[in-house]
Backbone:
Protein backbone atom coordinates (compact mmCIF):
# COMPACT_ATOMS: atom_id res chain seq x y z
CA UNK A 1 0.00 0.00 0.00
CA UNK A 2 2.79 2.35 1.00
CA UNK A 3 4.63 1.40 -2.20
CA UNK A 4 1.60 2.28 -4.30
CA UNK A 5 1.26 5.64 -2.59
CA UNK A 6 4.94 6.32 -3.16
CA UNK A 7 4.64 5.37 -6.80
CA UNK A 8 1.67 7.68 -7.25
CA UNK A 9 3.58 10.53 -5.61
CA UNK A 10 6.56 9.93 -7.91
CA UNK A 11 4.28 9.88 -10.93
CA UNK A 12 2.61 13.12 -9.89
CA UNK A 13 5.99 14.78 -9.37
CA UNK A 14 7.04 13.77 -12.86
CA UNK A 15 3.91 15.06 -14.58
CA UNK A 16 4.14 18.46 -16.23
CA UNK A 17 2.08 21.10 -14.48
CA UNK A 18 -0.08 21.62 -17.56
CA UNK A 19 -1.12 17.97 -17.62
CA UNK A 20 -2.01 18.08 -13.91
CA UNK A 21 -4.06 21.23 -14.49
CA UNK A 22 -5.81 19.59 -17.44
CA UNK A 23 -6.66 16.52 -15.34
CA UNK A 24 -7.80 18.73 -12.49
CA UNK A 25 -9.99 20.88 -14.75
CA UNK A 26 -11.52 17.73 -16.23
CA UNK A 27 -12.60 16.78 -12.74
CA UNK A 28 -10.92 13.42 -13.08
CA UNK A 29 -13.71 12.23 -15.37
CA UNK A 30 -12.97 9.44 -17.77
CA UNK A 31 -12.28 10.06 -21.40
CA UNK A 32 -13.85 7.61 -23.81
CA UNK A 33 -11.64 5.90 -26.32
CA UNK A 34 -13.66 5.43 -29.47
CA UNK A 35 -12.47 3.76 -32.62
CA UNK A 36 -13.88 3.56 -36.12
CA UNK A 37 -14.08 0.83 -38.68
CA UNK A 38 -14.23 1.42 -42.36
CA UNK A 39 -17.51 0.73 -44.11
CA UNK A 40 -17.00 -0.68 -47.58
CA UNK A 41 -18.13 2.08 -49.91
CA UNK A 42 -20.09 1.15 -53.00
CA UNK A 43 -17.96 0.75 -56.11
CA UNK A 44 -18.08 3.67 -58.53
CA UNK A 45 -16.98 3.02 -62.09
CA UNK A 46 -17.86 6.39 -63.61
CA UNK A 47 -15.01 8.84 -64.19
CA UNK A 48 -17.28 11.56 -62.81
CA UNK A 49 -17.26 9.82 -59.43
CA UNK A 50 -13.54 10.42 -58.99
CA UNK A 51 -12.72 13.31 -56.71
CA UNK A 52 -9.96 15.59 -57.99
CA UNK A 53 -9.72 18.16 -55.23
CA UNK A 54 -12.56 17.76 -52.73
CA UNK A 55 -12.68 20.82 -50.49
CA UNK A 56 -16.07 20.56 -48.83
CA UNK A 57 -18.48 17.89 -47.61
CA UNK A 58 -22.10 18.20 -46.56
CA UNK A 59 -24.57 15.51 -45.57
CA UNK A 60 -28.32 16.11 -45.41
CA UNK A 61 -29.28 12.83 -43.73
CA UNK A 62 -29.72 10.98 -47.01
CA UNK A 63 -27.18 12.24 -49.49
CA UNK A 64 -23.56 13.31 -49.33
CA UNK A 65 -22.54 16.37 -51.34
CA UNK A 66 -18.88 16.98 -52.16
CA UNK A 67 -17.58 20.11 -53.88
CA UNK A 68 -14.65 19.34 -56.15
CA UNK A 69 -12.47 22.38 -56.86
CA UNK A 70 -10.57 20.65 -59.64
CA UNK A 71 -13.59 19.44 -61.60
CA UNK A 72 -15.56 22.59 -60.67
CA UNK A 73 -18.61 20.55 -59.74
CA UNK A 74 -20.70 19.27 -56.87
CA UNK A 75 -20.69 15.47 -56.75
CA UNK A 76 -23.62 13.76 -55.11
CA UNK A 77 -23.30 10.37 -53.41
CA UNK A 78 -25.77 8.09 -51.64
CA UNK A 79 -25.19 7.40 -47.93
CA UNK A 80 -23.39 4.17 -48.86
CA UNK A 81 -20.94 6.04 -51.08
CA UNK A 82 -22.63 5.18 -54.39
CA UNK A 83 -22.12 7.99 -56.94
CA UNK A 84 -25.37 9.50 -58.17
CA UNK A 85 -24.80 12.67 -60.19
CA UNK A 86 -22.99 15.99 -60.52
CA UNK A 87 -24.20 19.57 -60.41
CA UNK A 88 -22.42 22.51 -62.00
CA UNK A 89 -19.55 22.70 -64.47
CA UNK A 90 -16.55 24.96 -65.00
CA UNK A 91 -17.45 28.47 -66.06
CA UNK A 92 -18.79 31.81 -64.94
CA UNK A 93 -22.40 31.65 -66.12
CA UNK A 94 -25.46 30.85 -64.02
CA UNK A 95 -24.93 27.51 -62.29
CA UNK A 96 -21.28 27.33 -63.37
CA UNK A 97 -18.50 27.03 -60.83
CA UNK A 98 -14.86 28.06 -60.69
CA UNK A 99 -12.93 26.64 -57.73
CA UNK A 100 -15.83 25.71 -55.41
CA UNK A 101 -14.35 25.66 -51.92
CA UNK A 102 -17.28 25.21 -49.54
CA UNK A 103 -20.70 23.60 -49.50
CA UNK A 104 -23.73 23.44 -47.22
CA UNK A 105 -27.18 21.88 -47.50
CA UNK A 106 -30.43 22.98 -45.86
CA UNK A 107 -34.09 22.69 -46.70
CA UNK A 108 -33.43 20.95 -50.00
CA UNK A 109 -31.09 23.69 -51.24
CA UNK A 110 -27.38 23.25 -51.85
CA UNK A 111 -25.26 26.36 -51.24
CA UNK A 112 -21.81 26.47 -52.81
CA UNK A 113 -18.98 28.97 -52.21
CA UNK A 114 -17.88 29.66 -55.79
CA UNK A 115 -14.49 31.10 -54.89
CA UNK A 116 -12.96 32.29 -58.15
CA UNK A 117 -16.29 33.74 -59.35
CA UNK A 118 -16.68 35.54 -55.98
CA UNK A 119 -20.24 34.39 -55.45
CA UNK A 120 -22.60 31.94 -53.80
CA UNK A 121 -24.44 29.53 -56.10
CA UNK A 122 -27.62 27.70 -55.07
CA UNK A 123 -28.89 24.41 -56.51
CA UNK A 124 -31.79 22.14 -55.69
CA UNK A 125 -31.24 18.52 -54.68
CA UNK A 126 -31.43 17.44 -58.33
CA UNK A 127 -28.67 19.85 -59.31
CA UNK A 128 -30.86 22.47 -60.97
CA UNK A 129 -29.77 26.08 -60.48
CA UNK A 130 -31.97 28.03 -58.08
CA UNK A 131 -30.00 31.27 -58.08
CA UNK A 132 -27.14 32.88 -56.24
CA UNK A 133 -25.57 36.20 -55.45
CA UNK A 134 -22.28 38.01 -55.95
CA UNK A 135 -19.94 38.83 -53.07
CA UNK A 136 -17.38 41.62 -52.69
CA UNK A 137 -14.71 39.04 -51.76
CA UNK A 138 -13.70 35.47 -52.56
CA UNK A 139 -15.69 33.15 -50.33
CA UNK A 140 -13.95 30.29 -48.58
CA UNK A 141 -16.69 28.39 -46.74
CA UNK A 142 -20.47 28.69 -46.65
CA UNK A 143 -22.84 27.40 -43.96
CA UNK A 144 -26.63 27.53 -44.20
CA UNK A 145 -27.51 28.24 -40.55
CA UNK A 146 -31.28 28.30 -40.83
CA UNK A 147 -33.76 28.87 -43.61
CA UNK A 148 -32.86 32.53 -43.93
CA UNK A 149 -29.20 32.98 -42.99
CA UNK A 150 -25.95 32.03 -44.66
CA UNK A 151 -22.56 32.30 -43.00
CA UNK A 152 -19.80 33.00 -45.51
CA UNK A 153 -16.13 33.07 -44.52
CA UNK A 154 -13.34 34.69 -46.48
CA UNK A 155 -9.56 34.85 -46.24
CA UNK A 156 -8.38 38.43 -45.64
CA UNK A 157 -6.54 40.10 -48.51
CA UNK A 158 -4.37 42.32 -46.32
CA UNK A 159 -5.20 45.30 -48.56
CA UNK A 160 -7.90 46.86 -46.41
CA UNK A 161 -8.04 47.81 -42.76
CA UNK A 162 -10.17 45.87 -40.30
CA UNK A 163 -11.08 43.01 -42.63
CA UNK A 164 -13.60 40.59 -41.19
CA UNK A 165 -13.49 36.82 -41.37
CA UNK A 166 -17.23 36.16 -40.87
CA UNK A 167 -20.09 37.50 -42.98
CA UNK A 168 -23.79 36.76 -42.56
CA UNK A 169 -26.07 37.12 -45.58
CA UNK A 170 -29.73 36.44 -46.15
CA UNK A 171 -30.57 34.10 -49.01
CA UNK A 172 -31.18 37.10 -51.30
CA UNK A 173 -27.56 38.17 -50.82
CA UNK A 174 -28.14 41.10 -48.44
CA UNK A 175 -25.38 41.54 -45.89
CA UNK A 176 -26.75 41.28 -42.34
CA UNK A 177 -23.63 41.25 -40.20
CA UNK A 178 -19.83 41.04 -40.33
CA UNK A 179 -17.50 40.15 -37.52
CA UNK A 180 -14.27 38.63 -36.19
CA UNK A 181 -11.51 40.97 -37.29
CA UNK A 182 -8.49 39.47 -39.04
CA UNK A 183 -5.12 39.51 -37.27
CA UNK A 184 -2.68 41.80 -39.04
CA UNK A 185 1.09 42.16 -38.69
CA UNK A 186 4.02 42.86 -40.99
CA UNK A 187 4.30 39.14 -41.81
CA UNK A 188 1.53 38.18 -44.23
CA UNK A 189 2.43 34.51 -44.23
CA UNK A 190 2.25 34.28 -40.46
CA UNK A 191 -1.04 36.20 -40.61
CA UNK A 192 -2.43 33.79 -43.20
CA UNK A 193 -2.02 30.92 -40.73
CA UNK A 194 -3.28 32.91 -37.77
CA UNK A 195 -6.43 33.82 -39.70
CA UNK A 196 -7.24 30.28 -40.79
CA UNK A 197 -10.51 29.34 -39.14
CA UNK A 198 -12.98 26.50 -39.35
CA UNK A 199 -16.70 27.07 -38.93
CA UNK A 200 -19.24 24.42 -37.94
CA UNK A 201 -23.02 24.72 -37.84
CA UNK A 202 -24.40 23.97 -34.37
CA UNK A 203 -27.96 23.62 -33.10
CA UNK A 204 -30.73 26.15 -33.70
CA UNK A 205 -28.80 28.26 -36.19
CA UNK A 206 -25.77 28.73 -33.94
CA UNK A 207 -22.31 28.31 -35.34
CA UNK A 208 -18.87 27.58 -33.88
CA UNK A 209 -15.57 29.18 -34.87
CA UNK A 210 -12.31 27.32 -34.25
CA UNK A 211 -8.86 28.73 -35.07
CA UNK A 212 -6.57 26.24 -36.76
CA UNK A 213 -3.58 27.43 -34.79
CA UNK A 214 -2.57 29.47 -31.79
CA UNK A 215 -5.87 29.55 -29.92
CA UNK A 216 -7.75 26.91 -27.99
CA UNK A 217 -10.84 28.97 -27.33
CA UNK A 218 -13.92 28.11 -29.37
CA UNK A 219 -16.44 30.85 -30.13
CA UNK A 220 -20.16 30.13 -30.44
CA UNK A 221 -22.23 32.71 -32.32
CA UNK A 222 -25.98 33.01 -32.84
CA UNK A 223 -27.37 33.21 -36.37
CA UNK A 224 -27.76 36.95 -35.75
CA UNK A 225 -24.00 37.32 -35.23
CA UNK A 226 -24.14 37.78 -31.46
CA UNK A 227 -21.40 36.02 -29.50
CA UNK A 228 -23.22 33.49 -27.32
CA UNK A 229 -20.41 31.65 -25.65
CA UNK A 230 -16.65 31.21 -25.56
CA UNK A 231 -14.93 28.21 -24.02
CA UNK A 232 -11.45 26.72 -23.89
CA UNK A 233 -10.89 23.24 -25.23
CA UNK A 234 -9.55 20.73 -22.72
CA UNK A 235 -5.74 20.86 -22.45
CA UNK A 236 -5.52 17.19 -23.33
CA UNK A 237 -6.20 18.24 -26.91
CA UNK A 238 -2.67 19.59 -27.14
CA UNK A 239 -1.04 22.23 -29.32
CA UNK A 240 1.58 21.01 -31.78
CA UNK A 241 4.33 23.59 -32.41
CA UNK A 242 5.74 24.37 -35.85
CA UNK A 243 8.53 26.87 -36.50
CA UNK A 244 7.92 28.70 -39.75
CA UNK A 245 10.77 28.83 -42.27
CA UNK A 246 12.20 31.99 -43.83
CA UNK A 247 11.32 34.17 -40.86
CA UNK A 248 13.89 36.52 -39.30
CA UNK A 249 12.94 36.11 -35.67
CA UNK A 250 11.53 32.59 -35.32
CA UNK A 251 7.77 32.54 -35.61
CA UNK A 252 6.14 29.59 -33.98
CA UNK A 253 2.72 28.32 -34.95
CA UNK A 254 0.80 26.24 -32.45
CA UNK A 255 -1.13 23.76 -34.55
CA UNK A 256 -4.51 23.05 -33.02
CA UNK A 257 -7.05 21.90 -35.55
CA UNK A 258 -6.80 20.42 -39.03
CA UNK A 259 -10.53 19.93 -39.56
CA UNK A 260 -13.66 20.00 -37.43
CA UNK A 261 -17.37 19.32 -37.40
CA UNK A 262 -20.27 19.50 -34.95
CA UNK A 263 -22.87 16.78 -34.44
CA UNK A 264 -25.41 16.01 -31.71
CA UNK A 265 -23.91 18.28 -29.06
CA UNK A 266 -20.27 17.39 -29.68
CA UNK A 267 -17.50 19.20 -31.51
CA UNK A 268 -15.18 16.84 -33.35
CA UNK A 269 -11.75 18.41 -33.72
CA UNK A 270 -9.04 16.67 -35.75
CA UNK A 271 -5.60 17.47 -34.38
CA UNK A 272 -2.75 17.93 -36.85
CA UNK A 273 -0.05 15.27 -36.82
CA UNK A 274 3.70 15.64 -37.26
CA UNK A 275 4.92 14.95 -40.79
CA UNK A 276 8.57 14.06 -41.46
CA UNK A 277 9.59 15.30 -38.03
CA UNK A 278 9.18 19.03 -38.61
CA UNK A 279 5.96 19.64 -40.52
CA UNK A 280 2.28 19.39 -39.59
CA UNK A 281 -0.27 17.53 -41.67
CA UNK A 282 -3.68 15.92 -41.32
CA UNK A 283 -4.26 13.64 -38.35
CA UNK A 284 -6.25 10.51 -37.68
CA UNK A 285 -7.31 11.30 -34.11
CA UNK A 286 -10.42 13.36 -33.45
CA UNK A 287 -11.08 14.93 -30.05
CA UNK A 288 -14.75 14.76 -29.12
CA UNK A 289 -15.46 17.95 -27.18
CA UNK A 290 -18.50 18.77 -25.08
CA UNK A 291 -20.13 22.21 -25.09
CA UNK A 292 -18.14 23.14 -21.98
CA UNK A 293 -14.83 22.35 -23.67
CA UNK A 294 -14.30 19.09 -21.79
CA UNK A 295 -12.77 16.23 -23.72
CA UNK A 296 -15.45 13.54 -23.72
CA UNK A 297 -13.63 11.04 -25.90
CA UNK A 298 -10.97 10.52 -28.50
CA UNK A 299 -11.90 8.92 -31.79
CA UNK A 300 -9.16 7.13 -33.71
CA UNK A 301 -9.78 6.78 -37.43
CA UNK A 302 -8.01 4.17 -39.55
CA UNK A 303 -6.24 6.86 -41.63
CA UNK A 304 -5.47 10.60 -41.55
CA UNK A 305 -8.29 12.72 -42.94
CA UNK A 306 -8.26 16.13 -44.56
CA UNK A 307 -11.93 16.93 -44.14
CA UNK A 308 -14.84 15.13 -42.61
CA UNK A 309 -18.46 15.38 -41.59
CA UNK A 310 -20.06 13.44 -38.74
CA UNK A 311 -23.62 12.15 -38.83
CA UNK A 312 -24.54 10.08 -35.79
CA UNK A 313 -22.18 7.13 -35.79
CA UNK A 314 -21.03 7.68 -39.36
CA UNK A 315 -18.02 9.72 -40.38
CA UNK A 316 -17.71 10.71 -44.03
CA UNK A 317 -14.17 11.81 -44.77
CA UNK A 318 -11.69 12.70 -47.46
CA UNK A 319 -8.36 10.92 -47.08
CA UNK A 320 -4.88 12.13 -48.03
CA UNK A 321 -5.31 10.96 -51.62
CA UNK A 322 -8.60 12.77 -52.03
CA UNK A 323 -10.60 9.55 -51.76
CA UNK A 324 -13.99 9.34 -50.07
CA UNK A 325 -13.98 7.14 -46.95
CA UNK A 326 -16.90 6.10 -44.75
CA UNK A 327 -16.34 5.03 -41.14
CA UNK A 328 -18.61 3.62 -38.45
CA UNK A 329 -17.80 4.80 -34.93
CA UNK A 330 -17.40 2.11 -32.25
CA UNK A 331 -17.95 3.53 -28.77
CA UNK B 1 29.60 30.44 -40.53
CA UNK B 2 27.05 27.68 -40.92
CA UNK B 3 24.26 30.21 -40.49
CA UNK B 4 25.80 32.43 -43.17
CA UNK B 5 26.05 29.53 -45.59
CA UNK B 6 22.43 28.55 -44.96
CA UNK B 7 21.30 32.16 -45.44
CA UNK B 8 23.28 32.47 -48.67
CA UNK B 9 21.87 29.21 -49.97
CA UNK B 10 18.32 30.21 -49.04
CA UNK B 11 18.84 33.56 -50.77
CA UNK B 12 20.11 31.82 -53.88
CA UNK B 13 17.15 29.43 -53.96
CA UNK B 14 14.65 32.22 -53.48
CA UNK B 15 16.27 34.36 -56.20
CA UNK B 16 16.21 31.39 -58.56
CA UNK B 17 12.58 30.77 -57.69
CA UNK B 18 11.75 34.40 -58.36
CA UNK B 19 13.35 34.20 -61.79
CA UNK B 20 12.06 30.79 -62.76
CA UNK B 21 8.51 30.62 -61.44
CA UNK B 22 6.06 31.90 -64.00
CA UNK B 23 3.68 34.59 -62.89
CA UNK B 24 1.02 36.63 -64.61
CA UNK B 25 3.64 39.36 -64.78
CA UNK B 26 5.33 37.39 -67.52
CA UNK B 27 2.58 38.48 -69.89
CA UNK B 28 3.58 41.09 -72.44
CA UNK B 29 1.17 43.75 -71.20
CA UNK B 30 2.28 45.40 -67.96
CA UNK B 31 -0.09 44.75 -65.09
CA UNK B 32 -1.75 47.32 -62.91
CA UNK B 33 -1.36 46.92 -59.18
CA UNK B 34 -4.97 45.77 -59.00
CA UNK B 35 -4.26 42.96 -61.43
CA UNK B 36 -1.10 42.07 -59.52
CA UNK B 37 -3.10 41.81 -56.31
CA UNK B 38 -5.79 39.73 -58.02
CA UNK B 39 -3.19 37.22 -59.19
CA UNK B 40 -1.57 37.34 -55.77
CA UNK B 41 -4.87 36.65 -54.05
CA UNK B 42 -5.58 33.74 -56.37
CA UNK B 43 -2.14 32.31 -55.64
CA UNK B 44 -2.72 32.59 -51.88
CA UNK B 45 -6.21 31.11 -52.00
CA UNK B 46 -4.85 28.20 -53.98
CA UNK B 47 -2.10 27.67 -51.41
CA UNK B 48 -4.43 27.91 -48.43
CA UNK B 49 -6.80 25.36 -49.96
CA UNK B 50 -4.07 22.89 -50.87
CA UNK B 51 -4.54 20.81 -47.72
CA UNK B 52 -0.78 20.36 -47.84
CA UNK B 53 1.38 20.23 -44.71
CA UNK B 54 1.92 23.72 -43.36
CA UNK B 55 5.63 24.02 -44.05
CA UNK B 56 4.93 23.40 -47.72
CA UNK B 57 2.08 25.92 -47.66
CA UNK B 58 4.53 28.45 -46.21
CA UNK B 59 6.90 27.91 -49.12
CA UNK B 60 4.09 28.35 -51.67
CA UNK B 61 2.88 31.51 -49.91
CA UNK B 62 6.45 32.80 -50.13
CA UNK B 63 6.43 32.15 -53.87
CA UNK B 64 3.14 34.11 -54.08
CA UNK B 65 4.85 37.03 -52.34
CA UNK B 66 7.75 36.86 -54.80
CA UNK B 67 5.24 36.79 -57.67
CA UNK B 68 3.58 39.92 -56.32
CA UNK B 69 6.93 41.67 -56.08
CA UNK B 70 7.84 40.71 -59.65
CA UNK B 71 4.46 41.85 -60.94
CA UNK B 72 4.64 45.16 -59.10
CA UNK B 73 8.11 45.85 -60.49
CA UNK B 74 7.06 44.74 -64.00
CA UNK B 75 9.81 42.13 -64.06
Residues:
Amino acid sequence: MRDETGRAATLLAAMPLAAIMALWSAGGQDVGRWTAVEVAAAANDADEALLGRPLGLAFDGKLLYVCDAQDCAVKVFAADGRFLRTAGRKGAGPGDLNFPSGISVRGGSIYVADKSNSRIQVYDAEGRVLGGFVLPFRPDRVLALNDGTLLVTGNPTGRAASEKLLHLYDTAGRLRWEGLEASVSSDRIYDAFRNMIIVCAGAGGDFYVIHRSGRRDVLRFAASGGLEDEFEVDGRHAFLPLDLPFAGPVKRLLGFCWAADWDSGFLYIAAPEPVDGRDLGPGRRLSVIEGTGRLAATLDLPCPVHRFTVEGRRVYAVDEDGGLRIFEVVR
Amino acid sequence: MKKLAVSALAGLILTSAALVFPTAASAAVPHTMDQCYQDYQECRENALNLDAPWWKVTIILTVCDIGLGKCALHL
About this structure: Chain B has a mean pLDDT of 77. Chain B has one domain: 23-75. Residues 23-75 of chain B form one domain. Chain B has three helices and no strands.
